[in-house]
């Protein structure tokens, strides 16, 4: 257990993970620290832990945003630029709203949810004072909003060095190392999403984005995919039948470009269920996320039989490739499925490519 709800730093629950590799292989793990309960509202901080040994040991918890505040700081979304300064710069985007809100319907005006940005130039030891980028990065029609959550990308091929952060209805990006940021809208909206730079540009653009299904795309209970350019047009959303997204509201999933040499592998983590947030699997794609022929359960005995189990191991996730060529993945844990006020925590998993493939030929 990396973040232990109810037993750590006075937080009732931890949710919405993000993990990234910074300079010298340092791993930074972020999540929301929810002070008084498991819900999405109220006093919520963004917290962080560091590892300098590829995830074997971790620092104590540090509050990155929200200290001395009762407002809601959340949806941590990170990207690392190794060329900025001596140690590189870790960018952290967040969504913010007043802690007095108790329901999404109360955020019924532009600016109720705001885009906040902070950064670290010393591998996550210290952080800048968060700045507000709502005026330039939130469309004027937007009421409820979110960035990520999870991770963004730094491009290698299209405008090398471009920083990209997925957000609701749009992709936020910078071509000047974060000095300025702008965005491109998606064609048919979007939800919580994740993005990669594609290896096959013949299929409609440089980028592929995978989202949980929004309100108009929930009937198939699968994740959805769009491809396009920045700036530029994006394709209509297409259902990914091999990637379930449970329930009527779906669930966030995490996407990672594992390698750019052949075969080009992309990884995805999410629940392998159309009903519940359970049975977390990792999938492998060799065509930028169009199809997913290989998958494996992350957790043995990861049952979805809620009637006969207490803890539910599944939900939001994030992953990073470590310096020792493994994958470090964070997934959510609901400690008691039968109590609505149960503590929620974040688990850490670490595995390598042969473990994922499990003798499947490539």
Automatic annotation (TrEMBL):
What Pfam families does the record tag this protein with? BNR_2 (PF13088)
What EC number(s) would the UniProt record show?
Answer: 3.2.1.18
Show where the Sialidase domain sits: 27-316
Q: Which domain of life is it from?
A: Bacteria
Q: Name one GO cellular component term.
A: membrane
Reactions catalysed, semicolon-separated, are: Hydrolysis of alpha-(2->3)-, alpha-(2->6)-, alpha-(2->8)- glycosidic linkages of terminal sialic acid residues in oligosaccharides, glycoproteins, glycolipids, colominic acid and synthetic substrates
**GO-annotated molecular function:** exo-alpha-sialidase activity
UniProt keyword list: Hydrolase
InterPro entries with a match to the protein in the record: Sialidase, Sialidase_fam, Sialidase_sf
**Which GO biological process entries does UniProt record here?**
ganglioside catabolic process; oligosaccharide catabolic process
- Family to which the UniProt record says this protein belongs: Belongs to the glycosyl hydrolase 33 family.
> What is the protein's name according to its record?
exo-alpha-sialidase
Gene source species: Niabella soli DSM 19437
